């Protein structure tokens, strides 16, 4: 059991490293093609790989009962369709590090929902952590002046990334319920496939075919990274961890993503690290730690 838990934690850390890189790869890709095109390329590749993994594991493609179809479609709608739209749209206008720090409040949202609907404890320490994290997010998106939020100082890109928080929280909690009846790999594979089907019509309407002519060699590299490593593998590892240690304990690892994202954004995209970004990020991560400390 101890070896299994250690292995789970190692896979979680690797997932967070890969997800930290998605903010850089996504920002590069978002500068060349429409968000829906980028999302379809990412999840189409991921779906093929995940379904192949299912076939290799079981000798056939996994099947869904009729009562399992709608829950899996919900996962595709939240964790793939909605998250992708918010992710790539937001990265068209704000930096990778800034976006990742906003998303860092996701574990707090997961813990709140778990307390409200799943009976998990949410005492004073967790409440304080949630408040600190939310204030930290306001510092990040308002460039050090949280009062600017009241004066309409938040950009459309910031709101898009907040949409990532909402959609990923729904995806995590939905996955917690779905995996009572389906294994993690099957859940991720079918949610990725259904989400891709939802993305395709929107991508075609936005000029998917014409967009393919704009894809550069570096963009194809980003697609392979996003689809294979950061989606097929990392999504599976994340859901596997939820099935073993629970949503809240797995969610705390998301606070590693901003650190990896800010570091890779600085090294690869020369994105500056402002004082408000550092202070707000520290508050976000501290709040996440307090929220999940118990």
UniProtKB/TrEMBL annotation:
TM region positions: 7-26, 38-57, 69-88, 100-118, 125-142, 148-170, 182-205, 217-238, 250-269, 275-292
InterPro entries in UniProt: AA-Vitamin_Transporters, EamA_dom, EmrE-like
Upper lineage: Bacteria, Pseudomonadati, Thermodesulfobacteriota, Desulfovibrionia, Desulfovibrionales
Compartments, as annotated in UniProt: Membrane
Ranges of residues in domain EamA: 8-141, 156-292
Family: Belongs to the EamA transporter family.
SUPFAM superfamilies: Multidrug resistance efflux transporter EmrE
Mode of membrane association: Multi-pass membrane protein
UniProt keyword terms in alphabetical order: Membrane, Transmembrane, Transmembrane helix
Protein name: DMT family transporter
Main localization, broad class: membrane
Keyword Transmembrane: yes
Cross-referenced Pfam families: EamA
């Amino acid at each position: 059991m101890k070896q299994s838990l250690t292995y789970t934690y190692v896979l979680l850390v690797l997932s967070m490293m890969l997800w930290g890189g998605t903010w850089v790869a996504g920002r590069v890709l978002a500068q060349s093609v429409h968000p829906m095109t980028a999302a379809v390329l990412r999840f189409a590749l991921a779906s093929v790989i995940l379904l192949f993994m299912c076939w290799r594991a079981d000798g056939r493609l996994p099947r869904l009962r009729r009562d399992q179809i709608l829950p899996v479609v919900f996962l595709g709608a939240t964790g793939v369709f909605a998250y992708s739209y918010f992710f790539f749209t937001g990265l068209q206008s704000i930096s990778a590090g800034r976006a990742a720090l906003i998303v860092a409040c996701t574990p707090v949202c997961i813990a709140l929902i778990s307390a409200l609907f799943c009976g998990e404890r949410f005492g004073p320490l967790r409440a304080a952590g949630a408040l600190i994290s939310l204030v930290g997010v306001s510092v990040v998106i308002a460039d050090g002046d949280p009062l600017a939020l009241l004066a309409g100082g938040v950009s459309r890109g910031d709101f898009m990334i907040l949409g990532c928080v909402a959609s990923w929280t729904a995806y995590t909690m939905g996955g917690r319920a779905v995996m009572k009846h389906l294994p993690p790999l099957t859940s991720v594979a079918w949610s990725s496939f259904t989400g891709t089907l939802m993305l395709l019509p929107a991508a075609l309407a936005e000029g998917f075919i014409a967009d393919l002519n704009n894809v550069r060699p570096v963009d194809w590299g980003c697609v392979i990274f996003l689809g294979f490593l950061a989606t097929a593998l990392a999504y599976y590892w994340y859901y596997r961890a939820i099935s073993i240690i629970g949503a809240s304990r797995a969610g705390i690892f998301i606070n590693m993503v901003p650190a990896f994202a800010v570091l890779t954004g600085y090294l690869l995209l020369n994105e500056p690290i402002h004082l408000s970004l550092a202070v707000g990020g520290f508050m976000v991560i501290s709040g996440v730690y307090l929220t999940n400390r118990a």
